[in-house]
Amino acid sequence: MTLAILAFFGVLSILLFAVRGFLDQLPDVFASAGRARDAWRALKQARGEEAQRVALQAVPPPARQDEDPPMAA
Hints:
The chain is mainly alpha-helical. It has a domain at 21-57. The chain is built from one helix and no strands. The protein is rod-shaped. It starts with a helix and ends in a 15-residue tail after the last helix. This is Sec-independent protein translocase protein TatA. It comes from Streptomyces ossamyceticus.
């Protein structure tokens, strides 16, 4: 009987040690996830700005009202 009690509490202490180790790592996991999310958003925003800049460069500037329109060739 004594051996069974010692075995039970030995397994319990190992289990608690493992759970404590897991819980100690959670703040770092959440911080890493937050940094990854922020980097992903920054990447998507940079790609969107680049696409917008390329699209704006392809569009010719509007003609001024006081200038004559270009002549057809």
